[in-house]
Structures are given as C-alpha cells and as structure tokens.
From TrEMBL:
Domain of life: Bacteria
Source species: Sphingomonas pokkalii
One Pfam family, short name: Inhibitor_I78
Annotated protein name in UniProt: Peptidase inhibitor I78
InterPro entries xrefs: Prot_inh_I78 (IPR021719)
Length: 96
C-alpha cells in the first residue's frame, strides 16, 4: 500500500517536469494573453506553474488570488491573475 502511494506521488510530482512547448511571441501591443494559460486550470499552485504561466502569457507580473482575499482593482496590462480555490488549485486565469 505504501509503495503504491509513493509511486503515485512520484508520478504526479514528475508530471509537471515534462518539457513544455515554447510559447509563440505575443502580437504587438498585447502584454498579457490569459487564453494561453487556461490549460493550467485544475493544476496545483507551485513556483514551476508560476514560471510557466508567466512565460506562456507574456505577462511580466503574476498575482495569485485566493478565495476571500482582498485585491486592488487597478488594471495592469502586464499582470496575470491566477485564481485558486482553498486547496490551491487553479480555477481561472485573467489579465489585469
């Protein structure tokens, strides 16, 4: 039983290490494209996911938004907002 749990944990942990296809450059005038990271929905919050999301979206900044957290309403064209649930799983991605 413990062996199975360890094997599953190892497989899940290495799944995020798979080499990702490099994102194509954004069109001129676009500083963040959240559509490029919608595939991250359902993935757990991590530094690797953060780096991947920034690279894919083209954003220069990233903000994690947790349920019930207070956030400023300023709109930044270069910022990606990743919304997570209580468990830290990504539920949405938006620029701004």
């Amino acid at each position: 039983m413990i062996g199975r749990v360890a094997l599953i944990a190892l497989l899940v942990g290495t799944a995020g290490c798979a080499q990702q296809k490099k994102a194509e450059p954004l069109p001129p005038g676009v500083e963040c494209d959240a559509n490029r990271v919608l595939g991250l929905k359902g993935k757990p919050r991590s530094q690797a996911i953060e780096a991947d999301a920034l690279a894919r979206s083209g954003a220069k900044r990233l903000r994690w938004i947790e349920p019930g957290s207070a956030v400023t309403m300023d709109f930044r064209v270069d910022r990606l907002n990743l919304h997570v649930d209580k468990a830290g799983t990504i539920t949405d991605a938006r620029c701004g």
